[in-house]
Amino acid sequence: xxxxxxxxxxxxxxxxxxxxxxxxxxxxxxxxxxxxxxxxxxxxxxxxxxxxxxxxxxxxxxxxxxxxxxxxxxxxxxxxxxxxxxxxxxxxxxxxxxxxxxxxxxxxxxxxxxxxxxxxxxxxxxxxxxxxxxxxxxxxxxxxxxxxxxxxxxxxxxxxxxxxxxxxxxxxxxxxxxxxxxxxxxxxxxxxxxxxxxxxxxxxxxxxxxxxxxxxxxxxxxxxxxxxxxxxxxxxxxxxxxxxxxxxxxxxxxxxxxxxxxxxxxxxxxxxxxxxxxxxxxxxxxxxxxxxxxxxxxxxxxxxxxxxxxxxxxxxxxxxxxxxxxxxxxxxxxxxxxxxxxxxxxxxxxxxxxxxxxxxxxxxxxxxxxxxxxxxxxxxxxxxxxxxxxxxxxxxxxxxxxxxxxxxxxxxxxxxxxxxxxxxxxxxxxxxxxxxxxxxxxxxxxxxxxxxxxxxxxxxxxxxxxxxxxxxxxx
Length: 475
Hints:
By secondary structure, the chain is an alpha+beta fold. It has helices at about 5-15, 20-80, 85-90, 95-115, 195-220, 265-285, 295-310, 320-330, 335-340, 350-355, 365-370, 375-390, 395-400, 405-415, 420-425; strands at about 120-130, 135-140, 145-155, 165-170, 180-185, 190-195, 225-230, 240, 250, 260, 430-435, 440-450, 455-465, 470-475. Among the domains are: about 55-170, Nuclear Transport Factor 2, Chain: A (Roll); about 375-475.
């Protein structure tokens, strides 16, 4: 009998491996497969339920959208065939003013159809739904030109039995204009909302080019600060510099109304923007001096802005006639010379002295007649009724008259106290001639007309005398 050492016993024991019952192993594997199958079935069921829910939601969304488009179609068809009852049945608001406004809109469309070639096909360019409200952009074609209009709707849930349930045309919701975006250029930054994307994209490169050309024409000593533009959905429609921020230009969205679809930046809007940019640059280069609105200096500043607008954009109206006549007589640098001399107290005499070196009374009649005075004197005639309605500016009104002339002073006093004078149509100047009498007094004679029941008739001669550096009215 041999002796087995401990290490030999341990070695033999280490070679013994535990084994599992094959039947138990099969049972466990089968249980795992069953659990995996159940999980797969559960996931499939949840996926199917999710797909059904999404399908249902999509079906509901599609149905809501179809209902909206059907409502738009009914409304457009009513306009096209002149069915007032069906058109008004689509309108809904608690505001009586809106209902009256829509009634007037129906009449406007019928008048438009009678006087123009109008296509109201009801083509929907876009339809955006946000819960109960919706915004629809439609195309209209008038005389071959495509336009876009924006209509707003609300989905009422009064019950199936209610004739007013469903989508109805409601007052404009100008807060529902799309997400806000920003475009940044070299000199300008535009903030706009989604509906005005095409306008913003068309405008930005033009703003930078206009600003560059304007500064080049004025030989800006220092570059003006960048300016901002906000395209806003608001009424009344306007294009103006914001009063609190002189470098913020606010532009009402053309789609607040009827906007041309083929030209995101319509010529009329472009001309107005260029005019405002030009006026802003003129004020900046002129030292931001505040000029009284009724002064010669203010009128001269507006003349310079008109000249600059032409330099900035070749599509702008031609420079004002007076400025053109100054350039013709005193050379191409006349505008910059005039701008350099511009100040709150500047009179016409100061302006011409800066250009010619000779005071206005010493200029020859031919030299004075070579200048185009019609626009200045027309501005003066239009200024009178404005000042009459502003009692705080009575002194400015009287300053327009030759108070050294007793008859002129009496006439001015009577007109200042007459509301009827302010209500009269402003005479239109046809021509102006300058003359000088034996006492070396210089006069401007303006032939005028007025409209009487649509017929233009002569309205007499308005006379001004050259006094205190400007023209003073004498009759």
